[in-house]
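RECORD TYPE: protein structure
NAME: Sodium-dependent nutrient amino acid transporter 1
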Amino acid sequence: MIVSALDTLTSIISGLVIFSVLGALSFEMGLDMKDVVKSGPGLAFVAYPEALSRLPLPHLWSVLFFLMLFILGLDSEFAILENIVTSLSDEIHCLRKHKLKVTIAVGAAFFLFGLPVVTRGGQYIFEILDYYGGSISLVFIAVVECIAISWIYGYENFSSDINFMLSKNMGIYWRITWKFTAPLTLLFIAIYSLVIHTPLQYGAYQFPNWTDVVGWAIVFVVISQIIVWALFHVIRSCKQECCKCLEAVFAPDKDWGPKDPIVREEWRVYKRNLKVHNFELEHVYITNL
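PREDICTED:
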């Protein structure tokens, strides 16, 4: 809760700084605020440096600011790599004994994939990947994650896991937010993004029509992974009756849970002692412990 509150507060402060600087630049340049700088990297590399240049010791603040950007980039890289390495380890169990090697291999692969972005035309490649792969696709993925956590894994299971780790019960606010507010809001954003979609443009440069085709192909490839792999697991598990098939698909692996053996046993006992399981799939989860 503290981290979330600080993150929200930081975002609010950043927004205040951005718009105050953009307002000053708009006044000095005689332009509308929307024409001063576009969203994206321009905010970090134009608006903030301009604000820092007006402070005492601007060089010091600039060094600290770009050092912070570098650290934030590393932090984001940690999360991305951990997500991919964990997913690979869950699917290919033999990789769990070689986590360091897998991490290095994934990092090296992404380094090679990122080299085209630092070429002379890299900014245009970045805009395509950011707009189609980092905006539209992520919203749909977030919707599916909300549904998977709150409705398939189940709110009761998720909140009981938090209660086990933090000894804190989740209130009605979190139940409503996780089950309804978050997925519906994200779904609205996704649909609205499709309705107002216009061909990609970077500054005065209008991307050719074929880039729109490539961009939507990226979106399709990303989103289709959810459907394809879901169908793959359903087909692979459908050796029994349909009901048993769904149970096998939605039930976690037997090694799911805390890694520490002592904590794991405490967690399994805690789960078995739960008396309220309101959703059928949650019951499937509990009975497979």
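COMMENT: The radius of gyration is 23 Å.
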